[in-house]
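Data deposition worksheet. Section B asks for the primary sequence of the deposited chain exactly as it was used as input, without tags or linkers unless they were present during the calculation. Section C holds the resulting structure in token form. Section D is free text for depositor observations; keep each observation to a single sentence. Incomplete worksheets are returned to the depositor.
Section A, Depositor: J.P.
Section B:
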Amino acid sequence: MVTKGLTVVKCGGNASVDAAGVCADVAGLAGEGRSVLLVHGGSGEIARLAGKLGVPQRTLVAPDEVTTRYTDPATLEVVILALAGGVKPRIVAELSRLGVPAVGLTGLDGGMLRARRKSAVRAVVDGRTTLVRDNLSGRLTEVRTELPETLLRSGFVPVVSPPAIDEHGHPVNVDADRVAAALAAALGAERLVLLTGAPGVLADPGDDNSVLSTYEVPAAGAPGRFAGGGMALKLVAAREALAGGVASVRIADGRAPDPVSRALAGSGTEVTAVVTASS
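Section C:
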């Protein structure tokens, strides 16, 4: 393992997240000799491009209140174009401008992210749970670490996003928070920082001053009563990272100056997992 001391950072796709500020902070950490891998989403850019191209967008709400993007073939094209053709080049260019050797990757590169396509997704529609089919999304099943390990060993900052590749060799959409968690676990990262458009997990979603310093996510099922919308999926990802052996997971404000450094210093919410008794 060449990734000891690795920090995996997920730069939220929310339009309010300051991607340039994240890049500047990552550049500072890299300049100190720290090993960093950056995962990004792009919900704002996806929504903008979908609107421009006239591709309707739909959000699915699972019974545990976790929200996901419905990905039909047209939306998958938008996702790939927005992430690989829009967000990622801007991040890589900004890191390069700051003197950081960065390499942009999707999960397709080197077969890095493998997933099994979901044959159906449970969603609550008009108060009833239904099965949604023809959804081109997948559940991560494997991370092949050779490519990111080689880049990290050589001093590069990998910049990674969906899609992944499914069991039939086709691209499928996967959640970027869970990508970050899976990469952090597979690479033996010490820390995972999930940056978002909120100061952390909030006791009151309408009050930014109600941020919780710590949050214990249940071992299974719904991620808890303070989790709603996109935050629920971040908490699921945090749980997966902790289960995979990542020692520290924080959800922090991607809008603040020096967001990664501030998170590493203790801002935001530290996520812990419920420890179940051994049988």
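Section D:
The two ends are 31 Å apart (CA to CA).
The CA atoms of residues 46 and 82 lie 5 Å apart.
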